[in-house]
Amino acid sequence: MVFSVIIPLYNKEEYIKRAINSVLNQTFQQFEIIIVNDGSTDRSVEKVKEIKDSRVRLINQENQGVSAARNRGIKEAKYDFIAFLDADDEWEKDYLKTIVTLIKKYPECKVFATNYKIVESNGNIRYPRINGLPKNFKEGVISSETYFEVASKSDPILCSSTVCVVKNAINKIGGFPVGVKGGEDLITWAKLMTKNKLAFNYKKHLAIFYRNTNIKNDNNSKNYRIVSYDKDIVAKELMKLYKEYQLEGLKQYIAYWFKIKINIFLRAKEYELAKKEFIFFKKYSKKNFKFFFYLFLLNSPVFIKKLIIKNLWGEL
């Protein structure tokens, strides 16, 4: 078993060697590393060239965005198991070893992942809030329905530095969507999980996501959730998937997406935009406490909105 590790690179000169070295230091050593330089204008390429290892391949292309870079890496990959790592994140040394175990134990799966930890901009470490897994779940298979149910009430189960996928599975969904300014990975994971099962190790946090570097150095770092529905490609793609597959968990996930957007618009005092998002939230949400809370809040006088929002979420 050999892995193709794909690292998209754009202006990450401070971090790219850390990412590459975290792969080279894996306890499982059967891999190639494909660095797709997406038109970097800093010294990122020079930093990659300082690493002398025949398993590292550098591919240069004009700036086309992170999806195009990942898709190029998939096209160039020699092996059937493809793992993704962002240029400013890193893996713990047993990440690939744990993925190997998942592949051998759960051959019916096409997607594999471990848990991860988040390093905040102030240096604090926190662990994802993942709710809704079966009681005492440590490792195992997660179905499409369960995946979306969990994702609708949690931090992301999958992120772009934790996922390994079988090459033909990601090719079947067309890889990553090109031209999407943000959330392209959410679309990709959703498409994968409507068609495949996930083998997931919940107990081991073997990828490290650096929130501060992803925000300040990513060329697609705008808050893609702040866009109105007419420009919200993520929402539209999720709704297309629900229309095709009719998964109840996916319906909950779409409601969760619109709830997040309502919160953002409310905090930004964009009350009319929040009301427009509620129209879609209403279509997919269960008629529970949260539904009636937002119905009340959106129809309250402005001074009540401001008071509730300040107490719940604080100021932007």
From TrEMBL:
Domain Glycosyltransferase 2-like residue range list: 4-130
Pfam families: Glycos_transf_2
Family annotation (InterPro entries): Glyco_trans_2-like, Glycosyltransf_2, Nucleotide-diphossugar_trans
Origin: domain of life: Bacteria
CDD domains per UniProt: Glyco_tranf_GTA_type
Identification of the protein by name: Glycosyltransferase family 2 protein
Species the sequence originates in: Caminibacter mediatlanticus TB-2
Lineage: Bacteria, Pseudomonadati, Campylobacterota, Epsilonproteobacteria, Nautiliales
